[in-house]
Amino acid sequence: MKFCKKYEEYMQGQKEKKNLPGVGFKKLKKILKKCRRDHAPSRIAFNESINQQHGNNCPRECTVCDGNFFPELLKEMEDVVGWFNENAQKLLELHLASGFKKCLTWFKGNNRKKNHLGLIQEGKDLVNYALINAVAIRKILKKYDKIHESRQGQAFKTQVQKMRIEILQSPWLCELMAFHINLKESQKESGGVLASPALFDGCSLTFDDGKPLLSCELSDSVKVDIDLTCSICLDTVFDPISLTCGHIYCYMCACSAASVSVVDGLKTADPSEKCPLCREVCVYKGAVHLDELGILLKRSCREYWEERRKTERAERLKQAKEYWDYQCRSFTGI
Ligand SMILES: [Zn+2]
Ligand SMILES: [Zn+2]
Ligand SMILES: [Zn+2]
After folding, report:
1. What is the 63 CA–ligand 1 centroid distance (Å)?
2. 321 Cα: distance to centroid of ligand 3 (angstroms)
3. How far apart are CA 282 and CA 255, in angstroms?
4. How does pLDDT run across 209-251, given as a tens digit for each residue?
5. Are 131 and 216 spatial neighbours (Cβ–Cβ below 8 Å)?
6. Which ligand is closest to the CA of 147, given by its number?
7. Contacts of residue 192, Cβ cutoff 8 Å, sequence gap at least 6
8. Are 76 and 20 in contact (CB under 8 A)?
9. What three-state secondary structure class fits 252?
10. What residues have a C-beta under 5 A from ligand 1, the ion?
11. Ligand 1 centroid – CA 61 distance (Å)
12. Ligand nearest to the backbone CA of 247
């Protein structure tokens, strides 16, 4: 398998990063191989008897490898997404740091330009890491299904998405993609040269038929497209947030979906409130504000952004007034 080698090489090249978690591609393949070699005849006999009883669509588990395969992969996926989220967050905080911190870096002298390039590269490395691991996981699950002629691999994937450890669902991936474009643009403006190429050419924001799309492609094998249309107001997301299920909305729209006022905020949302798209519960409390995406959209569609800002400000004032009126009334008892 060509990808397996590419993946190994990639992980080898990342050795200087301490304790970088990855998918044990070779080990998992070995488990599958053993399953195919040692137990194929009995497995076929087992499947046949089941097929006779229930027809072809009956989901079945492999007693040979399920005990090792899925738990192992699950653990690895948790580590991968954990490491990615932590490091992406660190990098983005650094970039969005307060003016004070920026001053400090400024005073550190002529390192500034180098720092900028360093940040771009680091962002790119992290996106790479996310994408190549996503491909690795997809491939190994496909292999599982092929060997077992099952859909267990796909079912596992759905389960993992529900548990929110699918790396492509991470709000930090979306933030990093926006971050990457933001930095590249400012780099272009200052006339610098980009650092060495990575596995992907970069990310892009396009408006296809007015539909905003944030995309990133990794050597043809995987493409991440994030639709930036808010499914509540049906317009480009404004002041975007990502719920823990990975769905992106305008902050204000999310507040109304969660039946909370902007003054109270999403933190006060009832856990039973559902995401309008996937109907999952408990998705509001851990919502992540997408600051880099906000910056990118503001720059890319300035007029629209200004327009939304005006209406939003009016709505915020209105809600704040209602809130205080209510507070006063309950306080004075009138
Ligand atoms: Zn098996
Ligand atoms: Zn909206
Ligand atoms: Zn959702």
Report:
1. 6
2. 31
3. 14
4. 889 999 988 765 678 889 999 999 999 999 999 999 999 999 9
5. yes
6. 1
7. 113, 116, 117
8. no
9. helix
10. 35, 62, 64-65
11. 8
12. 3
Strands (E) in the chain, as ranges, are 203-208, 211-218, 222-227, 240-242, 248-250, 288-289
C-alpha count within 13 angstroms, C-beta hemisphere, residue 250? 19
Return the SS3 of 225: strand
Write out the DSSP string of 156-213.
HHHHHHHTT--GGG-HHHHHHHHHHHHHHHHHHHHT-------SS--EEEEEETTEEE
Q: How far is the CA of 163 from the centre of ligand 2 (A)?
A: 25
What are the tokens at 240? 């975007």
SS3 for 145-167 is HHHHCCCHHHHHHHHHHHCCCCH
Alpha-carbon gap, residue 229 to 219, rounded angstroms: 26
- Ligand 2 mean position, distance from CA 246 (Å): 15
**Alpha carbon 25 to chain centroid, angstroms:** 22
Q: What's the 314 CA to ligand 2 centre distance in angstroms?
A: 16
106: left (phi over 0), alpha (psi -120 to 50) or beta: alpha
Ligand nearest to the CA of 69: 1
pTM: 0.82
Please write the tens of the pLDDT for every residue from 245-261: 999 999 999 999 999 99
Dist. CA 231 → ligand 3 center (Å): 11
Tell me, what amino acid is at 17?
Answer: K
Residue indicated by tokens 């924001």: 205
